[in-house]
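FAQ: What does the model actually see?

It sees only this:
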Amino acid sequence: MAEFKSVSFWVAKTIVAFGMATVMSIVTPVLLGAPLVFHSTVFLIVTTGLVALFSTTCLPIPRFCRWVNHLFTVRSSALFQDILFTIILTAIMATAAQLLSGQVQLMFWVATARIFPWLVIVAYFSVMLFKRVAKRVVARMSYRQRPVG
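And it is asked to produce this:
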């Protein structure tokens, strides 16, 4: 519970969630062959960013990933847990984006299912990138808050 009071926790989670949402909101229409419309892209970035922020902070997805990892292997595999986490988060974000955009017809779900493996790959590498960015921002914040002398 103490981590929820930490500013660095919220800064890091916000950078990763909205960074991933930005990449996914641009890549998904491109993979589907749809045009990028500024208004709808910004809407998707904000809404899926909030969904990703809620999902990564409030849902026990990391604990579920560790449990699934324990079912299959005795040792803990960080790569397996990261991939499973990305699959779950991508599914949550894709579902939220379709529901919030009003695309509830079967053809939209089939189109998203076709590109889902590519979305998981893009999401995995974007999360890796934005985790590094968040780590540097948090390190810079803690460096500036350190007392001099």
